[in-house]
Amino acid sequence: MISANAVGELRARTGAGLMDCKKALVESDGNMDEAITILKKKGIASAAKKAGREASEGIVESYIHLGGRVGVLLELNCETDFVAKNDAFKQLARDLCMQVAAASPLYVKQEDVPADMIAKEKEVAVAQAAGKPPAAVEKIVEGKLSKWFAQVCLVDQPFVKNQDQTVRDLLSASVAKLGENIVVGRFVRYQIGE
Q: Across residues 40-53, what is the average pLDDT?
């Protein structure tokens, strides 16, 4: 028997619907971590189905950090104005602005990073791995690039409010919750002295 408290906790941690949470807990025999994994898989699957749909509505959210030294403008797109006016969507935009203010990403996603910049990072990683066996060099370079993407790409960063979740996971959960494709269009971060 799955308790209502467990369902509520899973819902609070994932943002998924009550029935989805209950089904995931039943499927995982009450194991919270396993239930989260099940929901992520389902959320990512539903997000993937919606990813091809055009996200032409949305909002531009602003955030000024305490003291006024850092400011962010972020465009968050969705499919309908109905979702754009939804409080959960607005909170997502605000959270993403706070993420940009705190973590200083340079790009939205890996596809936005210029090829020459990736090549330079790869070159540095190969030089640092010099002297290691070729199979190890490949894995080291891959790991270093992954780590670098997690610093410079918004969607690959750990979410500031929950380090166990990436921004991509947060977006996928929001797509599953709101039922529409959600895309970060662009952002700009200003800081005094930069």
A: 60
